[in-house]
């Protein structure tokens, strides 16, 4: 087997796809055919990409998580098909049937019924994996359990948590001990901090506004089991050898042959999407691996995309050919192009012009998305917002998702979104509709604000999950309204004829009571206005006198209650 023209091809295609650097490893059985870097790990310092450069592998991590679980199967601690609730007693999904029946194989083959719900975890450094598992009960499915294949990183976060519950080891510790150490993957790690410490970490790049620029590393520690591993292609060559040789490399077994066979076996049929090229066809999904028919040869593969990095790890099990490709460019199809070319050469097939094909496809898709966005922009601004911008400022919360915070720009002319530490922008479209953009992935999210019967801004709906209706967030009251010193000004009795409402401050919270009615806690709503807990749309707005003390309480829908003078 040979790769006579492959290295020249790599350089040509790297230039075509405007990728700063790419590292490539190719193996056949136990033989390493190629292990090299091309281009730059960091352009600004002229640091070359090499076989020792560390890059993020993104979702190619998933196969490591599955194999770590496979070691538990071999030890008798785990059954692929036993319900997860038997291992995690508090485990709950939104769908009760899924709660009862979802097993580990379901989680790992993306058939839980849940869509991605990515922005629960993406960029979030505040939650633990156990807390993510707790939030699953609040996430709506868009399909019934086991109905269709739907990619879901949350299930892999759950799988990592399961490892910790069953073993007392973190996911990181299990993968390190049972895979990295046994295979000699000494350059692989789980965090960018660890990768930086090696001095070998590549700089991530993205093409923004038609220019390739460096971007920050995006920590994925929370979602580690779904995509946080960093590695060299040399380390991945060792991983590939274990996969093509029945779970064993150089006489060291990481997982048994029957278990690795289960991991590579087709588990879930995937929906048939656009078929751009006749030479490839989906063979479904295994556990942590995609299956594909490539020109009559079975391939097992998984790609990965992390901000500024693209990865592909793939092998032909029968032929024992493996290819690992890592690029420091955001969402590029170059790894697929290079992998197909390697298989063409090693399988003795006439090469297909994959570079030309995928570059045309990529340019067409990017151009189409740009045109669509320009049309949206041209239609924006037809009508102004219904409120001053300051009225939209505040915190918006939801049971499962992190808080969305909106502030004003320094000049007071724009709303600024804050979510999970992401660098976001926000542009008005029309009426009470805005669009939030995450530039790194050129992702746009429509936002519409909700108003109460009295015209106040009380929430927003945002299309965080494309396959579900917009998710509703409730606006929280200004935290200053919970200041006990301010609340004290509202204490007292207020009367409308024979009806008297008493307002008391108890445990730093206001409480209202009225004859014949159970007492109710007052929930801050907006400036000097509160909602009555359990009171439906009942609100109490306090008007202040010149001394800053409440003079009356306007209770909707009851009427205007005047303050009763204090005795003495």
Can you identify the CATH superfamily of the largest domain?
DD-peptidase/beta-lactamase superfamily
Q: What would CATH call the class of the largest domain?
A: Alpha Beta
The residue-averaged pLDDT reads 93
- Give a count of the beta strands, DSSP E runs of length 2 or more: 30
Summarize the structure.
The chain is an alpha+beta fold. Strand 5 and strand 6 (211-214) form a beta hairpin.
Describe the structure.
- This protein has 568 residues and is α+β, with helices and mostly antiparallel strands.
- The chain folds into 3 domains: 6-40 and 47-367, DD-peptidase/beta-lactamase superfamily (Beta-lactamase); 389-476, Lipocalin (Beta Barrel), CATH 2.40.128; 480-563, Lipocalin (Beta Barrel), CATH 2.40.128.50.
- It is built from 14 helices and 30 strands.
- An 8-stranded antiparallel beta sheet has the order 3-2-1-14-13-12-11-10, with helices on both faces. Strands 17-16-15-22-21-20-19-18 form an 8-stranded antiparallel beta sheet, with no helix packed on it.
- A hairpin with a 2-residue loop joins strand 29 (550-556) and strand 30 (559-563).
- Helix 1 runs antiparallel to helix 12, helix 5 packs across helix 6 and helix 12 (334-346) runs antiparallel to helix 13.
- The longest helix has 25 residues, at 354-378.
- The radius of gyration is 29 Å and the shape is elongated.
Write out key terms for the chains shown.
568 residues, Lipocalin, alpha+beta, 14 helices, Beta-lactamase, 25% helix, single chain, 8-stranded antiparallel beta sheet, 3 domains
């Amino acid at each position: 087997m040979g790769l006579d023209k492959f290295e020249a091809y790599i350089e040509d295609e790297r230039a075509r796809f405007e990728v700063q650097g790419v590292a490539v490893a190719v193996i056949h059985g136990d033989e390493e055919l190629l292990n090299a870097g091309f281009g730059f790990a960091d352009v600004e310092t002229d640091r070359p990409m090499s076989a020792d450069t560390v890059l993020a592998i993104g979702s190619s991590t998933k196969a490591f998580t599955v194999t770590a679980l496979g070691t538990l199967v071999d030890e008798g601690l785990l059954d692929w098909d036993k319900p997860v609730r038997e291992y995690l007693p508090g485990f709950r999904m939104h769908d009760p049937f899924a709660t009862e029946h979802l097993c580990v194989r379901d989680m790992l083959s993306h058939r839980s019924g849940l869509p991605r719900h990515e922005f629960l975890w993406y960029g979030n450094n505040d939650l633990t994996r156990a807390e993510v598992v707790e939030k699953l009960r609040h996430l709506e499915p868009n399909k019934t359990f086991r109905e269709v294949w739907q990619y879901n990183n949350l299930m892999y976060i759950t799988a990592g948590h399961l490892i910790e519950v069953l073993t007392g080891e973190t996911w990181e510790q299990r993968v390190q001990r049972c895979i990295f150490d046994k295979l000699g993957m000494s350059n692989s790690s789980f965090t960018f901090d660890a990768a930086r410490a090696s001095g070998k970490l590549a700089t991530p790049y993205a093409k923004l506004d038609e220019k390739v620029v460096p971007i920050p590393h995006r920590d994925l520690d929370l979602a580690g089991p779904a995509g946080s591993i960093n590695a060299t292609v040399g380390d991945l060559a060792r991983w590939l050898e274990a996969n093509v040789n029945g779970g064993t490399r150089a006489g060291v077994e990481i997982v048994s042959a029957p278990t690795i066979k289960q991991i590579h076996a087709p588990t879930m049929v995937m929906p048939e999407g656009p078929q751009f090229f006749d030479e490839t066809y989906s063979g479904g999904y295994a556990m942590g691996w995609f299956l594909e028919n490539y020109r009559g040869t079975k391939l097992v593969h998984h790609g990965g995309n992390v901000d500024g990095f693209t990865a592909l790890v793939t092998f032909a099990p029968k032929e024992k050919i493996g290819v690992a490709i890592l690029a420091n460019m955001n969402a590029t199809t170059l790894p697929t192009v290079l992998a197909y070319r390697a298989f063409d050469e090693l399988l003795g097939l006439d090469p297909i012009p994959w570079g030309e094909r995928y570059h045309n496809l990529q340019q067409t898709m990017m151009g189409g998305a740009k045109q669509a966005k320009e049309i949206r922009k041209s239609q924006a601004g037809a009508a102004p917002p219904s409120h001053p911008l300051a009225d939209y400022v505040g915190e918006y919360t939801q049971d499962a998702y992190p808080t969305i915070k909106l502030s004003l720009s320094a000049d007071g002319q724009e709303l600024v979104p804050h979510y999970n530490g992401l660098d976001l922008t926000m542009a008005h479209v029309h009426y009470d509709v805005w669009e939030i953009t995450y530039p790194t992935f050129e992702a746009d999210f429509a936002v519409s604000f909700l108003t109460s019967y009295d015209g106040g801004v009380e929430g927003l709906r945002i299309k965080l999950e494309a396959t579900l209706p917009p998710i509703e967030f409730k606006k929280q009251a200004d935290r200053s309204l919970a200041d006990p010193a301010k609340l004290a000004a509202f204490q007292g009795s207020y009367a409308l004829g024979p009806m008297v409402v008493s307002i008391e401050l108890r445990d730093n919270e206001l409480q209202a009571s009225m004859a014949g009615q159970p007492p109710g806690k007052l929930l801050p709503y907006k400036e000097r206005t509160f909602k009555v807990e359990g009171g439906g749309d009942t609100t109490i707005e306090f008007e202040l006198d010149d001394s800053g003390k409440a003079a009356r309480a306007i209770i909707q829908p009851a009427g205007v209650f005047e303050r009763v003078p204090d005795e003495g």
